[in-house]
Amino acid sequence: MYSFLPILILFIFFFLNIPICFALMGATLFFFGFLDTSMDLDLIMQHFIRSAESFPLLAIPFFIMAGSIMNYSGISKRLMGMAEVLTGHLTGGLAQVNILLSVLMGGISGSANADAAMQCKVLVPEMVNRGYSKGFSAAITAASSIVSPIIPPGIVLIIYALLSNVSVTKMFIAGYVPGALIAISLMITVAIISKKRKYVPVREKRASLQEVFKQFKESIWALILPFVIILGMRIGIFTPTEAGAIAVVITTLIGIFIYKELKLTKFPEILKETVYGTSTVMFIIIAANVFGAYLSWERIPFKLTNILLEFSTSPWSLLLLINLILLFVGMFIDGGAAMIILAPLLIPAALKLGIDPLHLGIVMVVNIMIGGVTPPFGSMMFLTCSLLNIKLEEFMKEITPFIVALLLVLFILTYIPDIVLFLPNLLS
């Protein structure tokens, strides 16, 4: 059983609130330094360095930078305007705008935390001014941010594709329908809650076609970017990494020459945000790859596959078990880190029972994102509560109906795989 000891040490480090990258490295070095000394520690450090030498990983900083540029270039503002004319007349108007804005943001930034932080600064103050409770505003902001990593080009989708050796483009395409289902379920939940609490729409009546067309003309440059990214990858003009670079160039050109709101003086701040966001993700990825060296050395995926298959004799029971594991782990570990740690462990068992890796990937992403809004360590939960100065108890009271709605969507996606696979199969 000593071969499983680093995993136990890893979770002890998590509970001691040690940063994830250091916890992963510490558990690995403990194993190779004290339990199995047959591998030279220099080789571990070489593995650490080699893990960063990956061309596909360049997509991550590019998309993080594109998301940051959006907030300084006026693109986010135009997307919010488009969301308002489309949903502002609905019951709970600004909360509905919040959800649709996350859908539109997901097509460019791909980061739940970036989306939640932007909406806390831009939209939530207006919601509070219009009579929405601060707890409700925080809850819908955190819940809707789940959509951003699922609608392409989500960073977690890229990570899973690299870990599972599936097409990044197919993974992106598979995210559209689940993302739409999540958005619809949240909008229905908002409508029910808003009707009970008498939250008024932001617009007295539905926007006219003329108003929609006027806003569409103003927002069109922001709206075409996701289509350019997906279409370019689909027909083979550029790779996902090159798509990230193109997203940076296009958002910059839109901000400087079309919306004329992006100033050169803002680039040091944009680069700072990009470096901070990238370094956080990359340190976790690199440390997880080193941890993967221990997993491979001890054949942990093979052992875990056998254990899972003892408890699960069918794909449906295995998917239920995987969901339970992910929901638990997602409460303690950030989404990207959880994916990096768990995907290599769970994929072999899923493949052995004939589960499509694309289907498994979407289920894992949705599941892990739900963990981001649940206690005790949900990242979007902490982000929104800290930015808006809200007590955790108030947040939990307001987020509960949204978690129920998200779990219902997760159940549907888990047991009706054609919902996930329909578009990738259609376009393959």
From TrEMBL:
Membrane topology: Multi-pass membrane protein
Compartments, as annotated in UniProt: Cell inner membrane
Keyword Endoplasmic reticulum included in the entry's annotation: no
Location of the TRAP C4-dicarboxylate transport system permease DctM subunit domain: 8-418
Listed InterPro entries: DctM, TRAP_DctM
Domain of life: Bacteria
Annotated transmembrane regions: 7-35, 55-72, 136-161, 173-193, 220-237, 243-262, 274-297, 317-346, 358-382, 402-423
Record-linked Pfam families: DctM
Keyword Cell inner membrane among UniProt keywords: yes
GO cellular component terms, semicolon-separated: plasma membrane
Keywords, ordered alphabetically: Cell inner membrane, Cell membrane, Membrane, Transmembrane, Transmembrane helix
GO molecular function, one term: transmembrane transporter activity
Cross-referenced PANTHER family: 2,3-DIKETO-L-GULONATE TRAP TRANSPORTER LARGE PERMEASE PROTEIN YIAN, SIALIC ACID TRAP TRANSPORTER PERMEASE PROTEIN SIAT-RELATED
NCBIfam families tied to this protein: dctM (TIGR00786)
Protein name according to UniProt: TRAP transporter, DctM subunit
Source species of the chain: Fusobacterium ulcerans 12-1B
